[in-house]
Amino acid sequence: MRLGLLLALLSAATFGTSGIFARSLLDAGWSAGSAVAVRVGLGAVLLAIPALIAMRGRWAALRRSAGPVGLFGLLAIAAAQVGYFNAVQRLPIGVALLLEYSGILLVVLWMWAVHGQRPVRLTVAGAVTALAGLALVLDLTSGARFDPLGVMWGLIAAVGLAGYFVLSARVDPELPSIALASGGMAVGAVLLFGLGAAGLLPMTFTFGQVTLAGLQVSWLVPIAGLAVVAATIAYVAGIGAARLLGASLSSFVGLTEVLFAVLFAWLFVDELPTALQLGGGVLIIGGIVLVRLGMDRAGPDSTERKAPLPSVEAAA
After folding, report:
1. pLDDT-derived band of residue 146, with 50, 70 and 90 as boundaries?
2. Structural domain of residue 131, as residue ranges?
């Protein structure tokens, strides 16, 4: 239990660094598409050898899961990360991440609309609480004007994250999680670089100095941070935590990524949401917890069995 909690917190903290690494590249002239493509491409390479080791004797599972793995790369990797990085370019990091995590609520709506799995009252209360928190995070009550494109990209990231929850429950259980992560990132990288080569996704790169945490460093530093810290270490720690703690407990601990992201944004880029937005963040997290409790109370036929809520590896 103690080791599992430490791994879960390590995963949440390392995932929470992606916003500050990405911000330094975006401010230096990188496009969101190029930053995501390089991150997931390097992440796929770094996880390739562990994935090959884990796949020994399980290649049939990969063949059976080719379609879901491809869709996983499209939604959970490409859409979620391009949406989040574009949102970070226009919104505070904490706000962008909270918008992305609203994807948990989309899973409930999907399972209700498509599979007829009606949520219990506790789940509905959690959804309403989270939506109220979202209104506070967007500061709608004060008439403040947020970049609408930033909000749109944040919601696209939420759709991608919801796709992760749904697809991960439908991939062959014999397929190791690390193989799904590596394969999904490989598919996402090929897709993103292909769209960039076709001119459909802006791809801009700069190779000089960038500003990271107030310091001038080489562009390789945030790239290494994204690929090694915010992808490889985060995924490996998250997988270990999920195996030790199980999905339920690890999903609660995974919500600390939001807190880590806000803390890092405050420490390294001097960016902190207002008191009202922080209160909204508390409501969102509380609403997600209520949704999870409601799904547990719904019993074995609930969405928990078909689309489990996120382990700590989900935020990538």
Report:
1. low
2. 2-306
